[in-house]
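Journal club prep — side note

Before the paper discussion, L.F. wants everyone to see what a predicted structure for a comparable chain looks like in C-alpha cell form. Sequence:
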Amino acid sequence: MLSARVWGSGNRCALLLHGSMADSSTWWRLGPSLAERGYRVVALDLPGHGASPANPAASVESHAAAVLSSAPNKVDLAVGHSLGGVVLAAVVSQLRPGHAVYLDAPLDCRSTAVDRVEVRARFTAMKDGRTLERLVRDRPSWHQRDREVEVASARRWDVPTAVSLAADLAGRDLTPSAGAHSVMLRAEPSDFVPADHASRLEAHGFDVVSIPGGAHSLHYSHIDEVMAVLAGLGDVSGTDEPETDAPALDAR
C-alpha cells in the first residue's frame, strides 16, 4: 500500500497524484480547497516518493498497480500533475473517475530516449540542487510553503526508482482512449505538453486549457486558475455541506 494524506469527509472522492520529486504534501492548498467543496480528498505518495517504498525496478505497470491497490474504490475526480498525470493515464480506464484532470503531464514520450547513467547523474544533481536558496531565486512567484514542501520532498525522493521509471517511459505513448471526461491543463508555452501534443489531445477528445505564462507546477504558480477549472467541471461545488473544520489526516 502507498502512503496517503487525506483531507475532508465529503460523499464524493478526489484522488490526487503528484509529480516527480514531489509527494502528497505538494497539494497543501488544492487538497483542503477541494475538501471545502464537499470532497474526501486522498493524495497518494507514488513509489519512491514521500513515505511510500522505493522500487528500483519501477515501471509504468508497477506504478499503476500500486496506485490501483491504494486508491479508493470510487473516485469522482482524479488529478495528476506531470508524472502523476502519466500514472493517472495508465490507470484511468480501471479507476473510471467522473473527471480526469492532467496538470502539464507529458503523456506522449515517444520521442524520448534514456541513457540510464546520464539520467542518474542528472536526477542526482536535481535532488542535490533542490534548496530553498535556489527556489527563492528561481521561483519568485511561489509561496514560501511551496518551496519548503518541494525541498523536503526532494530529500525523500529515491533516484534509482525514478531512473528505472524514466527508462520504462521512454518511447511510449500513454495517451488514454476516450472514457472519463479528460482535461489537460497546460502551461503556455509548455516544455511538457507542446502545442502539437495539445492539438493531438484535443483530437482524442480532451478539453485542453492553456494558461499563458503558467509554470510547470501550475498548482503552485496558478492555483486560482487551477481551482477555477476544477470548479467549472460541475461536480466540485455540489450540495454537500463543506467540511471546513476537518483537520488534515496524515496516514504516513
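L.F.'s comment for the group: Residues 8 and 218 are 23 Å apart (CA to CA). Keep this in mind when we get to the figures.
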